[in-house]
Amino acid sequence: MRYLKQISLLIILSMFLTGCWDKLELEERAFVYGVGIDLPEEQSSEKRITLTSQLIVPENLVSVGGGSGSAYRNLTITGTTVNDSNREMLKQTSRNTDVTHLRVILFSEDVVKKPHAFKEFIDVFLREKDMRRGMEIAVTSGKASDLLAVEPEHEKVPANYISQMLKVKGNIGTIESIRIGDIQEKVLQKESFSLPLLKKKNSKIIDYEGIAIYNGNKEVMVGELKG
Q1: Can you tell me the distance from the alpha carbon of 12 to that of 121, in angstroms, rounded to the nearest whole number?
Q2: Mean pLDDT, to the nearest integer, of 128-143?
Q3: How far out from the chain centre does Cα 31 lie?
Q4: Would you tell me how many other CB atoms lie within 10 Å of the CB of residue 28?
Q5: Phi, psi at residue 207, to the nearest 5°?
Q6: Can you name the residues that pair with 224 across neighbouring β-strands?
Q7: Which of 138, 149, 154, 179 has the most crowded Cβ, counting Cβ within 10 A?
Q8: CA 33 from chain center: how many Å?
Q9: Which of 227, 161, 158, 160 lies closest to 197 in space, CA to CA?
Q10: pTM for the model
Q11: Distance (Å, rounded) from C-alpha 108 to C-alpha 55?
């Protein structure tokens, strides 16, 4: 009986020892703040997507006592799928990517105008367990990666600038910000909806181009409203 109690005690204690077996220190993570999805410049049956991820450089993000370099860096990979491109991206980073702070996902106009492409790519984000449902979604006139390369005057990270811009209400010719959680049911039910259409005005400013209209039944962007 005494041995049985000792064994039971060891089993209970071992359960507490396994609590942090999979923990990952902050210094070992690469936080993703923005994602841009474009079509490859050279189309082929193997390469179907160009994925740009905006990673934070924590030591340069702090205003006081931080580094003097850029607060972010963009990594671009061309692959077959989002997951495939993400795996290739991991080879270029010295840290594990973390998407729990992802602010915005940008789709180039070319991607959304390609039948079924938007639904296919957005489905990856909807299924990812670490993704938040509050991420902003927008379509870009031109390459999505170009918008993640702007240098805004009042923000250190372009993804933050774009996210805050999409949340501003009352702008003429714009719509309410669209979060990934808002369109999940619409995509599944093949409902039509609208998305903000953004463009890069210059190296520091992003502007509203108008509104992109997505046909849920045809699963493709069918037009846009401007002005």
Answers
A1: 44
A2: 84
A3: 11
A4: 11
A5: -125, 160
A6: 212
A7: 138
A8: 7
A9: 227
A10: 0.81
A11: 19
